[in-house]
Amino acid sequence: MNRLAADIEATVISFADYFRGLDESVVSHKSEPGKWSKKEILGHLVDSAQNNLQRFVRGQYELLPKIVYAQDEWVSLQHYQQYATPDLVDLWVAINKHLCHVLRSLPAGSYTRHVDTGKGTVAVHTLQFLADDYLVHLRHHLDKIKS
To answer: Which of 7, 31, 117, 144 would suit a FRET pair with 63, their CA atoms being 20 to 30 Å apart?
Structure first.
């Protein structure tokens, strides 16, 4: 988990510098109605970190916790489009640093514990899978922001 946490942290720090260099008109632009702006995608990544923190913490002590994330609702209700961009970047960096701290602190015996992430169904995953998938998901959305 230490290597994975280091990869997440390096990815976040590097991308934060990139995002801070973008003009407000670029980060707030929506390509079409119903699509997220770059700023809202970053907000979604804040939400993803929050939900995964719940999974990594509760997954250690609860028996098969069900932690589902309604992404569109979270982004909409938190009004990321109106969030001050520097503050949003700082929040995203801080929550990811904390997530990395939690990952580094996970006892190896917890890696195989399970969490149900299914929305309207059962989707059981190990904490190891969720941690690996977190980085894949993070990079996917960062690539979208850059495109």
So the answer is: 7
